[in-house]
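Hi,

Apologies if this is the wrong queue. I'm a grad student, and the batch job for Metaxin from Dicentrarchus labrax produced an output file that my downstream script rejects. I'm not sure whether the problem is my script or the file. Here is the sequence I used:
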Amino acid sequence: MLGRRLGFAFSPHRVSDSSGNRHKVCDTDTFEAYAKFSGAKVTVSPIDWTWKTLTATVPELLCGDSAVQEATQILNFLRKQRFNADYELTARQGADTMAYIALLEEKLRPALLHTFWVDAENYANLTRPWFASRSPFPLNFLVPSRLANIALSRILLTKGEAPLHRITEVEGKIYSDAKECLNLLSYRLGTADYFFGNSPTSLDAFVFGFVAPLYKASLPSSPLQSHLKQLDNVTRFCDNVLAVYFSSDHPCPTPPVQETMDANLQKLTQLVNKESNLIEKMDDNLRSSPQHKPHRPEPKPSLASDKSSTPA
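Support response: The file is valid. Your script probably expects a header line. Output copied below for reference.
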C-alpha cells in the first residue's frame, strides 16, 4: 500500500508513521511528498498499533528535542529549516494554494473517511483486515472499530445538520462534493505536470496525499475511485510523482529551489569579490608605479602678439 512507502534516508529529522492509519494516511503521504519535493531527508519510522502507541499522534516529526505533529505544522517546520518547495510562488499563487488546501479538507477528506472507514464492503474487506494485521490481540479487534466510530463522528460533525442521526442522510452530499473537488483539481491542473510551474510545491504534496491513496487502494466498492480514474490528468499526476520521487530509479530528489538560488547568489558574490580584488590590485599597481608629469604643449603666440612685436 502507498502508506508503506517509507524509505527515506535522513538525519537529523525522524518522523513516525502510523503504518496504516487510514485517518492519517493523507497527512503522512502529504508530508512524505513534501519532504521529497523540498529535498529534506528524513528517516521514517513505521509504527504498529500497540498499547504504547494507541494514543499516538501521527505523523510526528522529531528533531532534537522538538516534536512536531500534523502535516501542516510539519511543513511549516521544514520551511523554517529552509526546505521550502514554495520558494518561487507569487502572492497570488500562495493564496490559491491555501484555498485549494481548504477545499481538499472540506470537500474530499469526508469522502475519503467514508470510503475507507464507513463503507461496509471496503471496511470489511480492506481497511479492517489490513489494520488488524498490524495490531496485537485484542487491539486487532478494538482499534479498527474505535477508529471507524471516530471517522463516522467526524463526518456527521462536519457535514451533518441537526437533527441528524444517520450517515445515509449525508452520503449523497459527501460524494457529490468530493467529485466536484476532483473536477476542480483536474481543471486547475490542465495539461501541466504540476499545479504551479515546472516543479512541485506544497499544493502538489497535498493533492498527492489526498488523491493517491484513493487512486492506488484496491477498493472493492468505490464510485469515487471510478470517477477519479476518469480524470486522466489527475491520475497521470499521481503516476508521475510516484515515478519521479518515490521510485528507486530516482533516489535523490531534485535540489530545492531555494538552495539553488542561494548557490547562484553565492557564486555571484564570489565573482563580485574577485572583480573587486582585481580592481584594488590594479589600483595599487598604478599607485606604486613611477609617475611622469603629463606632457603639455607650450602655447603658441597669438597673431595679435606677433603683430605687436613687429617693428614699424
